[in-house]
Specification:
The structure holds eight protein chains of eight kinds.
Chain B (H helix, E strand, L loop, with lengths): L3 H31 L30 H29 L11 H22 L19
Chain C lengths: L1 E4 L12 H16 L3 E5 L2 H10 L22 E5 L4 H12 L6 E5 H6 L20 E3 L6 H16 L24 E4 L2
Chain G lengths: L9 H4 L2 H14 L24 E3 L14 H5 L5 E4 L19 E5 L8 H5 L5 E3 L2 E6 L6 E2 L1 H8 L8 H4 L1
Antiparallel strand pairs in G: 1-4, 2-3, 3-6
The chains are: A mainly alpha, B mainly alpha, C alpha/beta, D alpha/beta, E alpha+beta, F mainly alpha, G alpha+beta, H mainly alpha.
Bound molecules: iron/sulfur cluster (3 copies).
The site of one iron/sulfur cluster has 15 residues of chain G, from helix 4.
């Protein structure tokens, strides 16, 4: 069996990304959609870190650091919106939000 | 190729995690083995609310302030992470430029960073997001005696 | 201080397996040494209950100062005060929410029998709704009397066969011969 | 007690012959007010005479006389240290008085208590419910025809497993109460710990021993 | 399981409002009757918005023992032990108030020594009650140790009670027309030692709380009650005085020997929890003053009425003389022979005005005996004080109101 | 690494894990007892003295009692979460112990189980996860008092976490490391950090009071308000775990304080100031560490029985409006001073 | 008199000085002599004329003093006393003859409130509240004291006025 | 298989399992908790990549902060879906495989080329705090300040959104 290398990490990252995507597409609960988004971000991070490590440069991890920071901001705002919406509409089912839109 | 020494502390830590989880499992399951058989009745299974049946079934929602504080926490947590990293590196960064540092620019980075975030903090403070009390509990002017 | 006691100890212990006896003793010791009260303070007696927790009497010496207001964590319910009908349901409810093994001390006349309140509003003794293990007479009983009641309860726990009963939610059977009341302490 | 008399004079001037007077007893004066006027009198006392505090309000059951009930108001003027009692009769068939909560808010619980224990109604009370006994208690305990021992009643539904309210055993000496059974286990069933004890003689437990 | 709120206080209107409010982040929570901060069996139903109290319904009656009904069925003397259990933090003071009420009904005055002793009783009771009140109050805001220090001094008061009456707590010390017995000789020295030690404890409590910012923040401007509101709600005692109304029955209608003593009535300015605390602390100090004076000027002479129709004759006489024996029997079985009439007597108890409204139709048994418990009235202020505050403030407010369910529910 | 080297390491790991369990389970029960005794002494009482010799067996009786108690799992709770919550309260404390340099070294064995490079980050990370236990307990109990208690506590914990991080930045600036062992060595060489960073030490101490839910910040269980907070519905050993976790957290907090500010296992006297060369110095280091921890535990207990409790909003205000700016200020001052000194 | 509302000084407002002062206060208690009276081990004196459990006494001649006049039964607020009147047998020596003696005398100790009224009203000084401050039992029936138990607890009372002697 | 490889497989499989469980749990709280667990395993992968700093930050920020907030919201909004999530979600069921397939298609070439990178051990990068953050504070100053600005914006947004609205 071959030793674990960059491609393994990328594969895991890809699979994680796919799961996140599925979560976004399949789940109706806005919170779950959000979590799917987080999974995606983390998949990206994993790829970045792996690249950085095997590529021998710092940039990947630097970028990952920034991504984590921005993700935090995004989560805070996103959840704030969800809470605000919930307080207004008492539902966080995305379908309903969609229906509000159109 | 992947020297184990690097990971050694983490492996030890992992061992501790395993041990601790093992202990927890024992602690959680033992009383059900050792203690008296569980009995159930409607009252025993109901929530304790000072001796009366619960006034409403599930806990209701509560003040949005708790969310706000949690959200603010996330944001400031990031700040803390950056600051910790900066703090650890500070003495290297502050070295004059010749010696591989940035000189006072190292401080300026953090000061600007902090100023921006402090603006947010002050904004939250001013707009009352950090206040729990309503107007009545806030200290009022003491009446002149 | 003189102790009148009706207890004649039957020295011929029941012919039981020594190990079981030992285990019984160990479990009895554990349970009697760590009796966390659920202070069911209903009226005046509650003040003496507080007093017995305070400096002069210090129920902490018995390890019983851990007053748990949550019934889930308590071992012995000390009913201190007048239990009215309006309150009866609550007392019973809290009793029901206590985990076994559990005990109950009726502190004072009101809790034991209704005391001086033979009236329309007062339950005539909490033993109408929950099984009482120890009655402490008095109105209110002195904190010393409560401590004595506590020791009386410890005697009862000691006299119970806890080991065989370990898994049973029922109260452990008690060696009745060891439990002869009343215990009367005369002061000077 | 001049001041009190002054107040009574004032009242009489305001309300005329409706105001009756109780004989002075131990330096206390009482004014008898007709039921219909009580709210006006109270308003007048508060605004016109400075009786700013309602110390107490209570009902009395004079079973056998007519009107059966009385409501007593104790009002107090803090500044003048002056106390006055108002009494108003309430007949049994229409046991209702005007509520004075609008005059003194302290009357709230007092009136509820009178309602609870005596069954008097107070018209215009914001929240006339039982306060002492539980909601759904069928009797009015302070009425004279209600025995101290109480009558059986259902407990509040919060008390699912505490049985019902029963009459308390009444025991008395030879001068007051009737004959009880010989020993407590017979008088008070709970005092019996086992059925055997109840049937047979009560055990004579415990002998004294020095230890 | 049925909806409890049927039994609970939130009435249907309030419930409907809560339910209908779409923005409701409210929850209804039940505090008590078995709760560490409701001092006995008060039950409070709270409606919370987050941590803030938006509505509140006190529910009392969990300690209703039927005292008034019982009183109608026994002689005046027999009822005396029941008064112990009204304000069970200050049994001595209740005994005194009740005895004076019956004496007023009978139209008799007790001798001066008896009056002085009763003053001593009242003030001891006041100190003991305030100590416990302050202790519980401190405990409610989290300072456990203060409570224990207060209890320690209370123990000494219990010792004093035990010396005079033979019981720590439920003293039943007064009798109609006198006392249970004269002060025993060892009492005054004991009292003096106690009075010497007490200021240190008061100072200790003071030092732990008064200027401690945590405590001050918890109490200052919390539960403010204006003087007008306090009067309107019928508050009495320290709670009324904290709102700035100088009303103290010991001054307003000096019963017992209170006219003879030099003391001051402390009043507050704001009417918040802090003022209530300060007023109680000051009252303890004033009581110490009164006790000193009473101990120094305790008159000699008889300590009970010498009326064989009111006060039980001396035992020796009962044992030897026929006439006394008959009086004895008469007093015990028929009670004092009260004239028909109606009186109201109130005394300044630690918690406020404890009043007895006695309606007599003659004979030894009251026709109606209404007890005006100060706590019953004081508790009415609860919604007014609490709404708009936080849950934690409620415990502070409850502590500062210092109520006793015994006299609230009777 | 040679194979026998690996085996030796594993032996050390196991020995140290056992040591950690022993230390925890000796210190924690007696911390509980110390609490009960000290509180009794402060209150002129005696405290438990009837169980065993001077009451020394009391904690064991209590613990065993909890073992033998009926384990109620009421029907209304969310069962899985209800069961795991107590362990989540206890786990973080135990895990933090793994990072604690509770001695220099005993012979060839270093006293840190996991001497992770950025150890403080692990402490932060593990500490951050301790919120879960309380939140879950409150929520899983599905009843109001626990719920309120849990939420309050969670908000309190996370608020003060920010302050903890900020207050420690200043000392990281000084020591230039996140490693706990290095921090201790730095202090051994340069003097205790509490003298160099008094403000940071003070802020950290306050935060520790808040993080461990000790008076004056004991909201989650503020008995007077919430009966006993998030653990109301818990009985038996599950409650015991909360209890244990609470005191284990207390112990860990004290140990952190000792490590970060009070020189860890070192004492500023010649043989004790450097990592041990001989076994008895190593033992002395362990003893010194535990003694320092005990002193801090006493402080925690002592404060609890003296001061009143804050109100919830005051507590949050204190964290966000007082400690937060103070910590920032401290960082700036430190930065300027260090900058003037010209960095390293 | 208005109570003084102390204004917090700047130092007070900093929390710490007051907390430290408080801590000093509490610290001083630690070495102090403890106030606790260790109950079962440590002896203590009941003060005053302590009102413990009511008991029946005999006179010097060993006779039950109670004449079952039932005054105590009447007065007892919780109605804890039950007297069953009975006649004394005539075999007693003439100078010690008292007409009546209760056949049984029951005090329900779970009811008794130790108020002392029975002692106060007894015209024969036959019932006394002794110093029994703690009465506990496992059953309610155990706490129902009958005549012999009460007499046993009461013992002999030296009566200065020997009423019975005069007869 | 070396220990390293074993660890990798353990962590990555556990991570993916957690991901799947996040996706399929009916209970949002369970989803959130599995997410936390997943992040912990992800941190394990970071450790294997010798990204020490990032691993800890991952736990600190994601597990310690972000997921706490998620949990808060999930618990406290306490809403229940009326339908199971897999019912009547046609669009999702059609879209998901497509999306995943597209993703994999895009990823495949990268994966193929990745093997080339893997054989340069001397160039491996160790993600210590110093290695990662020094560039941040020297080369990437602007992004740092921009991050601060974003955080500021988020703060303001949170405060505004969290404000108690007056009754509509
Ligand atoms: S027994 Fe006496 S002291 Fe105790 S509650 Fe009843 S009346 Fe009060
Ligand atoms: S004890 Fe005294 S009062 Fe009672 S019946 Fe006997 S003689 Fe009469
Ligand atoms: S002491 Fe009081 S209660 Fe007890 S028997 Fe005598 S009169 Fe009755």
């Amino acid at each position: 069996m071959m030793h674990v290398g960059l491609e393994h990490y990328l594969a895991v990252s890809g699979a994680l990304f796919a799961l996140g995507l599925a979560c976004i597409v399949l789940r109706r609960n806005a919170l779950l959609v959000f979590m799917g988004l987080e999974l995606n971000l983390n998949a990206a991070n994993l790829a970045l870190v792996a690249f950085s490590r095997y590529g021998g440069h710092a940039e990947g991890q630097v970028l990952a650091t920034f991504i984590i920071a921005i993700a935090a901001a995004e989560v805070a705002i996103g959840l704030a919106i969800i809470v605000a919406l919930f307080r207004r509409r008492a539902t966080i089912v995305t379908d309903l939000l969609r229906s509000l839109k159109g | 190729m992947h020297p184990l020494e690097h990971f050694w502390p983490f492996i030890a830590f992992g061992a501790m995690v395993v041990a601790a989880i093992g202990f927890s499992i024992i602690a959680v399951t033992f009383p059900s083995i050792l203690g008296p058989r569980k009995t159930h009745n409607e009252i025993k299974d109901s929530a304790y609310e000072c001796g009366l049946p619960a006034t409403t079934g599930t806990p209701a929602r509560f003040s949005v302030k708790f969310y706000v504080v949690a959200m603010l926490f996330i944001l400031f947590d990031i700040e803390v992470v950056f600051l910790i990293a900066w703090g650890v590196l500070y003495r290297k960064l502050i070295k004059p430029e010749g010696a591989g540092g940035l000189g006072w620019a190292a401080l300026a980075v953090a000061v600007i960073f902090l100023l921006i975030l402090e603006a947010g903090h002050i904004y939250a403070w001013r707009s009352g997001a950090l206040d729990w009390a309503s107007w009545r509990s806030r200290p009022q002017q003491e009446p002149r005696a | 201080m003189k102790r009148h006691a009706a207890t004649t100890f039957d020295t011929r212990l029941e012919q039981r397996d020594v190990i079981v006896t030992r285990l019984d003793a160990a479990i009895d010791w554990i349970r009697k040494s760590s009796c966390w009260p659920q202070p069911m303070g209903l009226a005046c007696c509650a003040i003496e209950l507080m007093a017995s927790g305070a400096a002069r009497f210090d129920i902490a010496r018995f390890g019983a100062e851990v007053m748990r207001f949550s019934p889930r964590q308590a071992d012995v319910m000390i009913v201190a005060g007048t239990c009215t009908y309006k309150m009866a349901g609550l007392v019973r409810r809290i009793w029901d929410q206590m985990p076994t093994p559990r005990w109950c001390i009726a502190m004072g006349a009101c809790a034991s029998s209704g005391g001086m309140y033979r009236s329309y509003a007062v339950l005539q003794g909490v033993d109408n709704i929950i099984p009482v293990d120890v009655y402490v007479s008095g109105c209110p009983p002195r904190p010393e009397a409560l401590l004595e009641g506590f020791m009386t309860l410890q005697k009862k726990i000691e006299a119970s066969k806890q080991f065989k009963n370990l898994w049973s939610p029922e109260p452990a059977p008690v060696d009745e011969r060891k439990l002869k009341g009343p215990i009367i302490i005369r002061g000077e | 007690m001049n001041e009190v008399n002054e107040t009574i004079e004032k009242l009489k001037a305001q309300f005329g012959a409706d105001i009756g007077e109780q004989p002075e007893f131990r330096g206390e004066c009482g004014v008898v007010v007709p039921r219909a006027k009580i709210l006006d009198v109270c308003r007048f006392l508060k605004t016109g005479c400075g009786f700013d505090m309602l110390t107490d309000l209570t009902g009395v059951d004079n079973l056998g006389s007519d009107p059966r009930f009385e409501v007593h108001y104790l009002v107090y003027a803090i500044a003048r240290r002056e106390r006055l009692r108002l009494v108003t009769g309430v007949p049994e068939n229409d046991a209702a008085v005007d509520s004075v909560v609008s005059v003194w808010s302290t009357a709230d619980w007092h009136e509820r208590e009178a309602f609870d224990l005596l069954g008097l109604t107070f018209r215009g009370h914001p929240n006339l419910k039982r306060i002492i006994m539980w909601e759904g208690y069928p009797h009015f305990p302070l009425r004279k025809d209600f025995p101290v021992a109480g009558l059986p009643a259902e407990l509040p539904s919060t008390a699912q497993n505490a049985g019902r309210a029963e009459s308390a055993p009444q025991e008395g000496g030879p001068f007051v109460a009737g004959i009880g059974a010989v020993s407590a286990p017979h008088r008070e069933p709970r005092a019996t710990d086992t059925a055997a004890e109840r049937d047979g003689k009560t055990a004579h437990p415990g002998h004294v021993e020095e230890i | 399981m049925s909806d409890v709120r049927d039994m609970a206080w939130p009435d249907s209107a309030a419930r409907a409002q809560t339910a209908a409010d779409p923005d409701a982040e409210r929850m209804v929570i039940n505090m008590g009757p078995q709760h560490p901060s409701t001092h006995g069996v008060l039950r409070v139903v709270l409606e919370l918005d987050g941590e803030e109290i938006t509505n509140l319904w006190p529910d009392i009656g969990y300690l209703h023992r039927g005292d008034e009904k019982i009183a109608e069925n026994m002689t005046y003397a027999q009822f005396l032990p029941y008064t112990d259990r009204l304000d069970y933090l200050a049994p001595l003071a209740n005994n005194v108030a009740y005895a004076y009420a019956v004496e007023k009904l009978l139209g008799v005055d007790v001798p001066r020594r008896c009056q002085y002793i009763r003053v001593i009783c009242c003030e001891l009771a006041r100190i003991s009650s305030h100590l416990l009140g302050l202790g519980c109050y401190a405990m409610d805001v989290g300072a456990m140790t203060v409570f224990l220090y207060a209890m320690r001094q209370r123990e000494l008061i219990h010792d004093l009670c035990e010396t005079i009456s033979g019981a720590r707590f439920t003293t039943a010390y007064t009798r109609i027309g006198g006392l249970m017995n004269d002060l025993p000789p060892e009492f005054l020295p004991l009292l003096r030692t106690f009075l010497k030690g007490l200021p240190a404890t008061v100072e200790e409590i003071d030092g732990l709380l008064t200027r401690n910012r945590i405590f001050v923040d918890r109490t200052k401007n919390i539960g403010v009650l204006s003087a007008a509101d306090a009067i309107d709600l019928g508050l009495t005692g320290p709670n009324l005085r904290a709102s700035g109304v100088e009303f103290d029955l010991r001054k307003a209608q000096p019963y017992s020997a209170y006219g003879d003593f030099d003391f001051e009535v402390p009043t507050g300015t704001v009417g918040d929890c802090y003022d209530r605390y300060l007023v109680r602390m000051e009252e303890i100090r004033q009581s110490i003053r009164i006790l000193h004076q009473a101990a120094d000027h305790l008159p000699d002479g008889p300590w009970h009425l010498d009326d064989p129709k009111i006060f039980l004759p001396r035992k020796e006489k009962v044992l030897t003389k026929m006439e006394e024996l008959i009086h004895h029997f008469m007093i015990v079985t028929e009670g004092v022979n009260a004239p028909p009439g109606e009186i109201y007597f109130s005394a300044e108890n630690p918690k406020g005005e404890l009043g007895f409204l006695i309606i007599s139709r003659g004979g030894g048994v009251p026709h109606r005996l209404k007890i005006r418990g100060p706590s019953f009235v004081n508790l009415q202020a609860l919604p007014k004080l609490c709404i708009g505050h936080m849950v934690a403030d409620m415990t502070a407010i409850l502590g500062s109101l210092d109520f006793v369910m015994g006299e609230c529910d009777r | 690494m040679h194979l026998d080297g690996v085996i030796l390491e594993w032996v050390f790991v196991i020995v140290r894990i056992l040591a950690i369990f022993v230390i925890t389970f000796m210190i924690v029960p007696y911390t509980v007892m110390a609490e009960r005794w000290v509180c009794a002494w402060i209150q002129d009482r005696i405290g438990p003295n009837r169980t065993g010799w001077f009451g020394l067996m009391q904690p064991w009786a209590d613990a065993l009692k909890l073992f033998l108690k009926e384990d109620i799992i009421p029907h209304h709770v969310r069962k899985v979460y209800y069961v795991i919550a107590p362990t989540l309260v206890f786990l973080p404390a135990l895990l933090t112990m793994a990072l604690m340099p509770w001695g220099s070294n005993l012979g060839p064995m270093s006293c840190v189980l996991a001497d992770i490079g950025p150890g403080m980050l692990v402490v932060f990370a593990v500490g951050a996860c301790s919120v879960y236990g309380i939140v879950l307990a409150g929520w899983a109990s599905n009843s109001k008092y626990p719920f309120l208690g849990g939420v309050r506590s969670a908000a309190q914990l996370i608020s003060y976490e920010v302050c903890i991080g900020l207050s420690l930045v200043a000392i990281f600036m000084q020591t230039q490391t996140l490693n706990l062992t290095q921090t201790v060595l730095y202090q051994a060489a340069n003097g205790w950090l509490v003298w160099q960073q008094p403000l940071a030490a003070f802020l950290f101490l306050i935060c520790m009071f808040a993080e461990t839910n000790r008076a004056p910040f004991d909201f989650p269980e503020a008995e007077q308000e919430l009966v006993s907070g998030y653990n109301i519905e818990y009985s038996s050993l599950k409650f015991g775990l909360f209890f244990l976790g609470e005191y284990a957290n207390l112990m860990v907090a004290s140990m952190l304080m000792v490590t970060l500010f009070l020189g860890g296992w070192s004492l500023p006297f010649a043989p004790l100031n450097a990592p041990a060369q001989v076994w008895w110095v190593g033992a002395a280091h362990v003893a010194i560490f535990i003694a320092k921890t005990a002193c801090l535990l006493f402080l925690f207990i002592w404060v609890r029985w003296t001061v009143p409790r804050f109100r919830y909003d005051q507590l949050m205000g204190l964290g966000w409006k007082v400690l937060f700016p103070l910590a920032l200020l401290n960082i700036l001052i430190t930065a300027v001073v260090l900058g003037l000194r010209g960095g390293a | 008199m208005k109570v003084r509302r102390p204004k917090l000084t700047l130092l007070d407002r900093l929390y710490l000085p007051q907390i430290l002062a408080g801590m000093w206060r509490t610290l001083k208690h630690i070495p102090r002599k403890k106030f606790t009276r260790q109950y079962p081990e440590e002896k203590f004196k009941l003060l005053g004329k302590y009102r413990g459990a009511p008991t029946l006494v005999r006179n010097q001649a060993g006779q039950v003093k109670c004449v079952s006049c039932q005054l105590c039964e009447f007065v007892c607020p919780p109605k804890a006393i039950r007297v069953l009147p009975g006649r004394r047998d005539d075999s007693a020596p003439a100078e010690a003859r008292i007409e009546k003696e209760p056949e049984d005398f029951i005090i329900d100790m779970t009811r008794c409130i130790y108020c002392g009224q029975c002692e106060e009203v007894c015209p024969e000084q036959a019932i006394f509240l002794k110093q029994d401050f703690a009465v506990t039992g496992y059953k309610r029936s155990e706490l129902e004291f009958h005549k012999d138990k009460l007499l046993e607890l009461g013992g002999i009372h030296d009566d200065p006025i020997c009423k019975w002697k005069k007869k | 298989m070396t220990v390293y490889d074993a660890m990798f497989w353990f962590f990555s499989l556990a991570l993916l399992l957690c991901g799947v469980l996040v996706l399929i749990s009916r209970d949002a709280v369970a989803s959130a908790l599995f997410m936390v667990l997943g992040f912990i395993f992800l941190a394990g992968l970071y450790l294997l990549l010798e990204a020490w700093f990032l691993a800890l930050i991952q736990i600190l920020v994601y597990a310690g902060a972000i997921m706490v907030l998620f949990l808060f919201v999930v618990m406290l909004l306490d809403f229940r879906e009326k339908r199971r999530w897999w019912h009547g979600n046609l669009l999702g069921w059609l879209g998901a495989p497509l999306a995943v397939a597209a993703l994999l298609a895009a990823l495949l070439p990268v994966l193929k080329r990745a093997g080339a990178l893997a054989d340069a051990p001397e160039k491996w990068f160790e993600g210590t705090l110093e290695n990662v953050m020094t560039p941040v504070f020297t080369r990437y100053l602007l992004p740092v300040e921009v991050t601060a600005l974003i955080l500021l914006a988020a703060t303001i947004g949170v405060v505004v959104l969290g404000r108690k609205e007056t009754k509509p």
